Amino acid sequence: MIFGRHPAYPQRVNVARQELASNTSRGLSRCSPWRAGRMRTIWSESPHVQPVISTPSQTSDVISTHFENVRRVLAEVQVHAVQRLVDVFREARDRGAFIYIAGNGGSSSTASHWVNDLGKATKRSGCRPLKVMCLSDNMSWFSALSNDEGYERAFSGQLENFATQGDVLTCISASGNSPNLVRAVELARRQKLTTAALLGFDGGALRGLVDEPVCVETEKGKYELVEDVHSAICHAVTRCLVADRPGLN
C-alpha cells in the first residue's frame, strides 16, 4: 500500500476541530461561569490541547526508523558476553543455586518476564530446576523497604534474607546507575555471589562493579532501543537453557 494524503484530508481535519470545539463548548455550558472562564483561559494558553495529526507516511517513517535502529544496536551486542551469562546461569542451575533478577521501571517488567520464562520454559520432569526469583515482583516488601529504609535498600534488603554464597544476582538497567541496584551488587559481592547485568548507554557504575556485564551501547536517553535489545538478549539466554533439556523446543 502506498501511503499518501487523502484528498479529503484537510476537510476532515477541519471537521474534527469543529467537533472538538463544539464538545468543549457544551461541556463548559454545564460549569459555573467562573470555572468555565478559567477553563477557557487554560485551554487557550495550552497549545498541547490542539489535535495532533500525523500522516500515514510520517507514522511509517517513525516505525521503520525504530526497527532499523533496533537491528543496528542488536548487531553490535557482544555475543561472547551473552555466552558468558548463559554459562553463569548453567553453573548456578547445576549446583542448585538461586538466580535473583532485579530492575526498575521498564526494566522491572523485563526482569519479571524473564523470570517467568526461565522458571517455566526450562522446567522438565527429572531435571534439576532453574531456581530463579524476581526481586521487583513482591511490591509489598519492595515498597516497605523503600518507605521505611530508603529506596536504595529495596533490593539489598531482600537479598539479606535470601542470598547465600554461590548464588547469582543479575541486574537490568539502561543507565547502570540506579542506587538500589548498585547497593544490591555491593551486598552481593560481600556475600560472594556472582554478579551480572544487562546494561545500556555506556554501562554506568554497574559496568565496572559486576562480574559479567552485557552492555547495549547507545547514546544516552535511548531507553526504547536498550529495552528492546534487552528483551532479545533475555529470550536468547532462555533459548540456550531450553536447548539443554532434551525434549524441550
Description:
α5 runs parallel beside α10. A five-stranded parallel sheet has the order 2-1-3-4-5, with helices on both faces. It is globular and about 70 Å long. It folds into two domains: 1-49, no CATH class; 74-243, Glucose-6-phosphate isomerase like protein, domain 1 (Rossmann fold, 3-Layer(aba) Sandwich), CATH 3.40.50.10490. The chain contains ten helices and five strands. β3, α8 and β4 (194-200) form a beta-alpha-beta unit. With 249 residues, the chain is of the alpha/beta class.
Tell me the major beta sheet. 5 strands, parallel
CATH homologous superfamily (4th level) name of the largest domain: Glucose-6-phosphate isomerase like protein, domain 1
Q: Could you say what the CATH topology of the largest domain is called?
A: Rossmann fold
Q: Average pLDDT value?
A: 87
| Count of spatially separate domains | 2
Question: What does the overall shape look like?
Answer: globular
DSSP strand tally: 5
User: What would CATH call the architecture of the largest domain?
Assistant: 3-Layer(aba) Sandwich
Give the spatial strand order of the biggest sheet: 2-1-3-4-5
Highest-level CATH class of the largest domain: Alpha Beta
- The number of helical runs is 10
From the helix content, strand content and strand pairing, which structural class follows? alpha/beta
Strand share of the residues? 5-15%
